[in-house]
């Protein structure tokens, strides 16, 4: 169910309501949202909901229009806060990307030319006349003092972790990985029987088609402190070698050059192509000085911490909303 406040056009397989017969539209939306599994017709190759059967379905309607409005107001407030957190996360994601692009793609990281070192309050390196040197390995200019390297210089791929078989642990499946942003769905609890293992601050990338092409990537951040979780065997895990590089790894794994390299080096039969971790390790990139990497982590990691807190809050608010919804609709709980 979706509530749309404004102009829209429905697909020809959608059912929609525009006349609410004096009832509160938002209340009707929430009522429809908690009807559960609606019986679908099996008379077609593509099962669908029969509109005539919907018209005849008995539902627990609260006729008091004032109470309808109060119920809709309570539930809408929860949804509004969830939506606000999602929009904040989108802005934080954009900020982290902008900073990454300025520093490591456009090479306009803050630089103090007097000391010859990156500085928080420095001027943009390249646009301020910082020296650029052609690198024959990368076949492009990079800042003086930077070197050509590979992803394996910065990250361990699929680092080993211990999780005994049949141990109950947090599970993050392929469906939990977002197509945009970096936050996963809350982990499930399952018995470990196999799969890629990870911990908080690891970055996971889907390695199989079409999930890789679609951009399924995530920062693992919803586990308990020190907990080892697990997920699909079709994940590749990245972790900073000598220090946390979770923010840098998140942005690198979503960068166009990294993804194009991964997609172009997939092997296997059509529909089941994969990229191997050993191949992804060879991705070439300009290696920034350690000081600059750590400055980026210090700045951008606060964005990811806020995203994680917002995601945890949304999980709690969603549970609260879904717990209240049927009781409000059945009249078990009233709003004063």
Describe the structure.
The structure is a single chain. This protein has 336 residues and is an alpha+beta fold. The protein folds into 3 domains: 1-106 and 292-336, no CATH class; 110-146, no CATH class; 152-284, Adenine-n6-DNA-methyltransferase TaqI, Chain A, domain 2 (Alpha-Beta Complex). 38% of the residues lie in helices and 17% in strands. It has helices spanning 25-33, 51-56, 65-105, 151-154, 211-214, 246-254, 256-264, 277-280, 290-330; strands at 40-41, 48-49, 110-112, 117-118, 123-124, 132-135, 140-143, 147-150, 155-157, 168-172, 188-191, 196-198, 203-206, 217-219, 229-231, 235-240, 284-287. A 4-stranded antiparallel beta sheet has the order 9-16-13-14. Helix 3 (65-105) packs antiparallel against helix 9. It is elongated, with a radius of gyration of 25 Å.
Helix content: 25-40%
Mean pLDDT: 92
Q: What kind of oligomer do you see?
A: single chain
- The tally of strands reads 17
Distance between the termini: 27 Å
Overall tally of structural domains: 3
Class by helix and strand content? Answer: alpha+beta
Count of alpha and pi helical runs:
9
* Lateral arrangement of strands in the main beta sheet: 9-16-13-14
How big a fraction of the residues is strand? 15-25%
What are the segments in which pLDDT stays under 50 over at least 5 consecutive residues? Answer: none
Compressed to H and E, one letter per element, the order equals HEEHHEEEEEEHEEEEEHEEEHHHEH
What is the makeup of the main sheet?
4 strands, antiparallel
Radius of gyration: 25 Å
Shape: elongated
């Amino acid at each position: 169910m979706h509530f749309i406040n404004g102009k829209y056009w429905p697909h020809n397989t959608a059912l929609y309501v525009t006349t609410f017969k004096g009832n509160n539209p938002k209340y009707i939306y929430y009522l429809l949202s908690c009807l559960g599994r609606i019986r679908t017709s099996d008379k077609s190759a593509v099962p669908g909901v029969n509109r005539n059967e919907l018209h005849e379905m008995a539902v627990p309607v609260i006729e008091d229009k004032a109470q309808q409005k109060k119920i809709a107001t309570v539930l809408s407030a929860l949804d509004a806060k969830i939506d606000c957190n999602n929009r904040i996360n989108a802005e934080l994601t954009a900020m982290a990307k902008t900073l990454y692009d300025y520093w490591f793609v456009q090479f306009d990281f803050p630089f103090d030319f007097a000391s010859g070192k990156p500085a928080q309050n420095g001027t943009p390196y390249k646009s301020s006349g910082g020296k650029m040197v052609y690198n024959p390995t990368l076949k492009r200019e990079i800042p003086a003092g930077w070197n050509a390297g590979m992803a394996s210089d910065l990250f361990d791929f699929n680092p080993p972790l211990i999780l005994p078989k049949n141990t109950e642990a947090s599970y993050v499946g392929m469906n939990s990985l977002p197509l945009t942003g970096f936050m996963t769905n809350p982990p499930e609890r399952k018995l470990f029987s196999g799969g890629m293992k990870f911990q908080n601050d690891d970055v996971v990338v889907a390695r199989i088609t079409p999930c890789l092409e679609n951009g399924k990537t995530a920062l693992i951040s919803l586990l308990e402190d020190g907990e080892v979780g697990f997920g699909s065997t079709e994940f590749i895990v990245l972790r900073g070698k000598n220090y946390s590089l979770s923010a840098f790894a998140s942005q690198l794994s979503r960068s166009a050059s990294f993804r194009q390299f991964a997609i172009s080096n997939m092997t296997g039969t059509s529909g089941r192509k994969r990229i191997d971790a050993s191949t992804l390790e060879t991705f070439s990139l300009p290696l920034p000085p350690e000081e600059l990497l750590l400055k980026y982590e210090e700045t951008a990691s606060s964005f990811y911490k806020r995203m994680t807190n917002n995601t945890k809050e949304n999980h709690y608010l969603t549970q609260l909303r879904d717990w209240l919804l049927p009781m409000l609709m059945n009249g078990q709980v009233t709003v004063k």
